[in-house]
């Protein structure tokens, strides 16, 4: 029987276990509402390195090292590492994973990297191409500012629709056996262009992709949104979440009861001056690793649809007046055997 | 999806909170005003110290540029701009911040392609269009002088 | 009294820029360019020098004042040396400010490290 369901959804032959997760975040994230959940909170944004970029790589390295340790599996037993970040040519992941010396698949899906990684990793395991796979995604406030906006010391006001890039890396160890929490399927999203050109309003740019992927997933599997305890988007923030609910409502789908967004969860809007909320590959990667995954383990949640979202732009494409296409992948994660 | 780009544009407009212009303007007015009044203080000091009338303006500008770059270096100028917006970016101090911030940020990429090349990433535009428009003014002025029989 | 006028006019110029930033999608970097060019034009037609006379640093410290300086410089050079002044006047008049910004920025890059926010 084909594993493909409907237009874009796959259901795995055998659930793929998530044996362990790990997260490393910066001080600001550590002070946020989820602060005590993260595995490691780094007070030094440089992590003892010489550049912000090297600091981001260090986040990746620490997250991977910890995840390997927690999974009780030797690093040499991992068949692939799949990782992505926001830096040009993925140098955040590259230099963080160089020492691990495992077969490496670098991915780019902007802030949807964790979703893309979990989906691809699960497919590889389900296809029998590997037994254990590490997935990681990272972002760093300072590297993102430097690459996408202005130098850190340049003074400027950002509009209330702008997000705050999360400093952090999240990792997950996928395994062909083991783990109470499993990935059972996924929906690979299409690129969606809603015509948004404002790079200070990424939530608006990405809401279209999230809506399209969630809608397609529910149609492909003929499900009602209440099938999931939570439908969790990556980093739409307040503006994007509002738009997502509106877009889906027009399609006759109401997810207002069980929608959550990692960008909203990670910071306290009122005390942390983070405007639209958190963003970046590290946002949903760390929030999943240290908030939703433990909730699945402790049975506070039994089935979630994890939908990381990404804005597919570069500073050049924005300067050239291109709109910001976006992407979202949905990953079905549930307790084993429900 | 049932929503097209045009409808979505309206939805985005409605869903996106706006900056509070009134508050921003008050802050910009206050901080911009203070920087300029401080410039006036410097002006009077240099005049009292005996600087010639032609040079006082330059001394004031150099002093403000120096102070802004030091504040940039210790990581404070961007906080002022975050609070005051145009009140801190429109005075000459904002130009100094625009020049020094990329120089400090990009020192990791070396002194040629990092510091010196990036010095002008933002300020370069100010210099280029400032001097180009001064050429236009100069040309017009020259032609007027010549043909008005001056 | 001249402190008050410097404060009011300087603050007022910044408010105009702030309104443009908030009401249009113009970024602060573009506003800086726009204000220098406006200063050059107003200086060129001879209006801005009157504002400087009145408000002192309130008119000369904002970037419009920098533009005015360029316009003033180019006119003076044209008077002095003729057509060549069209090319040399602007930079010559603004040399002190630009050189100070380059020098202090370079020194700052030697001393300071970028700070995390």
Key structural traits:
heterotrimer; B: 150 residues; mainly alpha; 8 helices; 81% helix; C: 117 residues; 6 helices; globular
- How many domain modules of chain C? 1
- The best one-word shape of chain C is globular
The strand count of chain C comes to 0
Order of helices and strands of chain B, N to C?
A: HHHHHHHH
Task: Report the largest inter-chain contact.
Answer: B-C, 78 and 80 residues
Judging from the principal axes of the Cα atoms, what is the shape of chain B?
extended
Oligomer: heterotrimer
Quote the distance from N terminus to C terminus of chain B.
70 Å
DSSP, total strands of chain B = 0
| Helical content of chain C (DSSP H or I, runs of 4+) | over 70%
H/E order of the elements of chain C?
HHHHHH
Percent of residues in beta strands of chain B: under 5%
Residue-averaged pLDDT of chain C, rounded? 95
Rg of chain B computed from alpha carbons, rounded to a whole number of angstroms = 21 Å
Secondary-structure blueprint:
The complex is a heterotrimer of chains A (338), B (150) and C (117).
Chain A: E1 4-5, E2 9-26, H1 27-30, E3 40-42, H2 52-70, E4 80-84, H3 91-97, E5 104-106, H4 113-126, E6 132-139, H5 141-148, E7 164-165, E8 168-175, E9 181-187, H6 202-220, E10 230-233, H7 237-250, E11 259-261, H8 262-266, H9 269-272, E12 278-279, H10 281-297, E13 303-307, E14 309-311, H11 315-319, E15 326-328, E16 330-335
Parallel strand pairs in A: 2-3, 4-5, 4-6, 7-12, 10-11, 10-13
Antiparallel strand pairs in A: 1-2, 2-8, 2-9, 6-8, 9-16, 13-16, 14-15
Chain B: H1 5-15, H2 21-48, H3 53-73, H4 77-84, H5 86-89, H6 92-105, H7 111-118, H8 120-147
Helix pairs in contact in B: 2-3, 3-6, 6-7, 6-8
Chain C: H1 2-23, H2 28-44, H3 48-55, H4 57-60, H5 63-81, H6 84-111
Helix pairs in contact in C: 2-5, 5-6
């Amino acid at each position: 029987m084909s594993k493909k369901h409907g237009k874009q959804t796959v259901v795995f032959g055998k659930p793929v276990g998530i044996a362990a997760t790990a997260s490393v975040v910066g001080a600001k994230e550590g002070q946020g509402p989820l602060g005590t959940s993260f595995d490691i909170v780094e007070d030094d944004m440089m992590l003892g390195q010489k550049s912000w970029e090297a600091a981001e790589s260090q986040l990746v390295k620490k997250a991977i090292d910890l995840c390997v340790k927690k999974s009780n599996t030797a690093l040499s037993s991992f068949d692939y590492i799949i990782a992505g970040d926001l830096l040009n040519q993925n140098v955040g992941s590259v230099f963080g994973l160089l020492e691990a010396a495992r077969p490496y698949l670098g991915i780019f899906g902007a802030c949807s990297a964790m979703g893309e990684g979990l989906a691809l990793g699960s497919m590889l395991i389900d296809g029998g191409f590997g037994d254990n796979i590490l997935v990681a995604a990272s972002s760093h406030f300072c590297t993102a500012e430097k690459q996408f906006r202005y130098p850190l010391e340049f003074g400027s006001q950002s509009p209330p629709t702008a997000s705050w890039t999360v400093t952090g890396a999240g990792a997950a160890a996928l395994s062909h056996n083991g783990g109470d929490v499993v990935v059972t399927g996924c929906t690979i999203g299409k690129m969606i262009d809603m015509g948004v050109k404002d790079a200070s309003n990424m939530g608006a740019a990405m809401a279209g992709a999230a809506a399209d992927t969630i809608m397609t997933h529910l149609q492909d599997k003929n499900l009602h949104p209440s099938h999931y305890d939570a439908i969790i988007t990556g980093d739409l923030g307040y503006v994007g979440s509002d738009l997502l609910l509106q877009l889906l409502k027009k399609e006759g789908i109401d997810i207002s009861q069980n929608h959550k967004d990692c960008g909203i969860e990670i910071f306290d809007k009122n005390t942390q001056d983070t405007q639209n909320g958190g963003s970046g590959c590290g946002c949903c990667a760390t929030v999943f690793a240290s908030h939703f995954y433990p909730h699945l383990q402790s049975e506070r949640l039994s089935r979630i649809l994890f939908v990381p979202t990404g804005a597919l732009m570069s500073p050049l494409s924005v300067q050239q007046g291109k709109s910001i296409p976006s992407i979202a992948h949905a990953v079905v994660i549930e307790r084993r055997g429900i | 999806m049932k929503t097209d780009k045009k409808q979505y544009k309206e939805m985005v407009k409605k869903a996106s909170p706006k900056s509070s212009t009134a508050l921003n303007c008050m802050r910009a007015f206050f901080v911009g005003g203070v920087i300029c009044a401080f410039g006036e203080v410097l002006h009077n000091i240099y005049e009292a110290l005996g600087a010639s009338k032609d040079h006082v303006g330059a001394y004031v500008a150099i002093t403000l540029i120096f102070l802004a770059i030091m504040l940039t270096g210790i990581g404070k100028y961007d906080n002022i701009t975050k609070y005051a917006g145009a009140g801190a970016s429109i005075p000459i101090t904002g130009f100094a911040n625009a020049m020094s911030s990329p120089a400090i940020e990009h020192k990791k990429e070396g002194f040629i392609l990092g510091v010196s090349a990036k010095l002008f990433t933002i300020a370069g535009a100010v210099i280029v269009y400032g001097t180009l428009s001064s050429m236009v003014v100069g040309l017009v002025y020259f032609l007027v002088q010549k043909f008005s029989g001056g | 009294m001249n402190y008050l006028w410097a404060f009011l006019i300087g603050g007022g110029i910044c408010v105009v820029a702030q309104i443009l930033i908030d009401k249009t999608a113009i970024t602060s970097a573009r506003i800086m360019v726009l204000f220098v060019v406006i200063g050059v034009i107003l200086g060129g037609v001879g209006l801005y020098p009157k504002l400087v006379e009145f408000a002192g640093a309130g008119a000369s410290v904002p970037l419009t004042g920098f533009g005015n300086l360029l316009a003033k410089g180019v006119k003076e050079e044209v008077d002095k040396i003729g057509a060549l002044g069209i090319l040399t006047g602007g930079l010559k008049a603004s040399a002190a400010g630009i050189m100070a910004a380059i020098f202090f920025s370079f020194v700052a890059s030697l001393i300071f490290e970028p700070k995390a926010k």
